[in-house]
Structure to design on (638 residues):
């Protein structure tokens, strides 16, 4: 069965990219080897378009790009997207085991497929700027795909169509990842893992939906997202600088502040409505955030209002 | 009965106009939503500049039959591919009416290919649960998509099919999973075009693999009879749908297929390329992998797909994929 499939081109030896074209109109290049030192440019596809490179390595590796030649430590498993013609170099002075897969989207191809796609236009605009590179650290879906791409490449007589499917899937996941960052502009240096970020976003949206309900607990979040308390706390600390319960408390108190300013409901009513089981708990919490009791705060507002 | 007929040159979007007018459905962003009495679900098209056109139908509880008639045309330039999965309530598997009339003996979950020159009628029955992808692809585009293959393969296989207008095969679990994913994501996918072309590319890969198997079987003189194909697909379907329960056992399966255990085993292996249990296990673990992708913890996955002991699941997973579920979750 397999013998009827076209076979991927192979070559061994020097530190160089092995290029091949995919039937759908994309081109790709693979590199997989270990070296004493590395100074490697992205493959030259010789036409205008966008290059997306997935990288996996052991050792230490830096990426240099732009005219200024700034260097960044590359993540051990990352994807980076750039336009062709921008010099991007991978550097290392120590021995490195490197495997990389580069996908080239010719400009014409992108126009054909993404003619009316607003999302893709956004990506293109981001890349327009000279110094911009879109990166993401790879999550597990990327990594397992990437592993299978390398396996396909090494396997004798593997199918080009199978490779094409893997490449298309990788491309799709990269583009759909909502947490891409512009390298060097990314303020979240601690959490750049797409899985973690999407987890935080999920929890945040869950909190903003349910924080007023009196049955809402941190436990219910943990059950919903299948995470441990400590892990979630760690992630929230590095993202917002506070624990998850502090985050929820702040959200509630902020809401109550608005309600006090509306001056429609009494303090006790507000306390129950935003999910506190007793007024004293609410007053304590309010005091912790604003160093003043809600009653006094209400008076202040009333005074201001005259 | 809603009846839509299409010329070869007319875009799929025309179906929308006809149906939307007749049933006063809502169309937004090239998605048509059935509502109220007309049925539940949606239909969507994606036309690609590369000469591939896709119509995805995901409906249930239709009030009346939905019929697409692709008129025969002299301009022989495209193929029609369809991937269907239909559930029709109140009927046993073995007395299903053919879902694609003029082709006698079509299967109710099937993949089929036909030449647009001969025309084609596709019927989606009322009250059924229908998930289907219809693809019209220009011959040149298909050749382009699979350029490096023996470009004449499809034509050759269509040619050798003994004059049948449509070639039909039962689908495998890969198709089922793909169809499932496709339907859940297509409407809201931000890169719909890329998503569609990726899925079509995968479908075509599966289809070609199936072609080659069929071709080889025919050349070796082991081609299956229509009866056998039906029986095997019933077994396959049983294995796929009951992945959460224990493996049913060879006696049970041989009763379902009305074959002797030995011939069931050999024929299944020949056609699906895997043993009965191996096939069942692969499908099961693929489901597990989807769950893991959705961040469900290993323990829960194990119970979900019917393992009483998580370590048995871990072992099976490792045997299949070469890494444990935990490693799958924590690759760094």
């Amino acid at each position: 069965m397999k013998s009827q499939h076209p076979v991927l081109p192979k070559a061994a030896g020097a530190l160089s990219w092995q290029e091949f074209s995919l039937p759908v109109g994309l081109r790709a290049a693979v590199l997989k080897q270990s070296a004493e030192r590395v100074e490697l440019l992205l493959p030259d596809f010789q036409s205008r378009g966008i290059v997306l490179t997935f990288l996996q390595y052991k050792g230490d590796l830096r990426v240099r790009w732009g005219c200024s030649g700034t260097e960044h430590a590359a993540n051990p498993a990352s994807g980076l997207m750039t336009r062709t013609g921008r010099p991007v170099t991978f550097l290392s002075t120590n021995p490195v085991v490197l495997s990389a897969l580069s996908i080239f989207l010719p400009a014409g191809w992108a126009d054909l497929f993404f003619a009316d796609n607003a999302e893709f236009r956004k990506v293109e605009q981001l890349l327009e700027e000279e110094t911009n590179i879109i990166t993401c650290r790879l999550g597990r879906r990327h990594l397992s795909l990437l592993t299978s791409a390398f396996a396909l490449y090494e396997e004798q007589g593997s199918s080009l169509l199978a490779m094409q499917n893997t490449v298309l899937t990788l491309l799709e996941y990269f583009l759909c990842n909502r947490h891409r960052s512009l390298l060097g502009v990314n303020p979240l240096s601690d959490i750049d893992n797409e899985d973690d970020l999407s987890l935080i976003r999920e929890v945040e949206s869950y909190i903003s939906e349910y924080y007023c309900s009196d049955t809402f607990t941190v436990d219910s979040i943990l059950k919903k997202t299948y995470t441990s308390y400590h892990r979630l706390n760690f992630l929230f600390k590095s993202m917002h600088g506070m624990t998850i319960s502090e985050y929820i408390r702040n959200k509630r108190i902020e809401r109550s502040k608005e309600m006090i300013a509306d001056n429609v409901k009494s303090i006790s009513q507000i306390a129950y409505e935003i999910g506190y089981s007793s007024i004293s708990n609410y007053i304590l919490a309010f005091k912790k955030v604003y160093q003043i009791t809600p009653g006094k705060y209400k008076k202040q507002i009333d005074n201001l209002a005259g | 009965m809603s009846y839509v007929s299409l010329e070869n040159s007319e875009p799929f979007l025309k179906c929308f106009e006809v149906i939307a007018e007749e049933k006063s459905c809502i169309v937004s962003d090239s998605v048509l939503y059935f509502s109220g009495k007309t049925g539940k679900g949606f239909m969507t098209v994606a036309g690609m500049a590369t000469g591939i056109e896709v119509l995805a139908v995901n409906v249930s509880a239709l009030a009346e039959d939905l019929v697409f008639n692709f008129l025969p045309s002299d301009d022989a330039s495209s193929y029609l591919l369809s991937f269907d999965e239909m559930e029709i309530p109140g009927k046993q598997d073995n007395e299903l009416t053919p879902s694609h009339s003029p082709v006698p003996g079509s299967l109710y979950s099937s993949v089929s290919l036909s030449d647009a020159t001969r025309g084609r009628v596709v019927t989606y029955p009322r009250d059924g649960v229908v998930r289907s992808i219809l693809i019209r692809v220009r011959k040149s585009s298909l050749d382009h998509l699979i350029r490096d293959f023996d470009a004449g393969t499809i034509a050759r296989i269509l040619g050798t099919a003994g004059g049948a207008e449509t070639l039909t095969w039962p689908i495998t679990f890969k198709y089922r999973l793909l169809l499932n994913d496709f339907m859940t994501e297509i409407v809201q996918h931000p890169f719909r075009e890329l998503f569609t072309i990726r899925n079509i590319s995968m479908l075509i890969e599966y289809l070609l693999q199936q072609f080659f198997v069929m071709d080889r079987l025919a050349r070796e003189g082991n081609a299956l009879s229509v009866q056998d194909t039906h029986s095997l697909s019933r077994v396959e379907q049983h294995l796929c749908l009951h992945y959460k329960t224990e493996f049913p056992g060879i006696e049970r399966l041989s009763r379902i297929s009305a074959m002797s255990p030995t011939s069931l085993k050999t024929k299944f292996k020949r056609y699906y390329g895997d043993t009965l249990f191996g096939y069942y296990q692969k499908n099961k673990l693929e489901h597990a992998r989807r769950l893991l992708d959705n961040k469900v913890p290993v323990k829960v996955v194990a119970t979900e797909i019917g393992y009483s002991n998580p370590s048995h699941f871990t072992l099976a997973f490792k045997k299949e994929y070469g890494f444990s579920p935990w490693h799958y979750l924590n690759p760094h």
Q: What stands out?
A: Residues 256 and 270 of chain A are 6 Å apart (CA to CA). The first strand of chain A starts at residue 18 and ends at 21. The radius of gyration of chain A is 26 Å. Chain A touches chain B at residues 1, 4-6, 23-25, 76-77, 112-115, 117, 119-120, 138, 140-141, 143-144, 159-162, 164-165, 168-169, 171-172, 175-176, 193, 195, 199, 225-226 (CB under 8 Å).
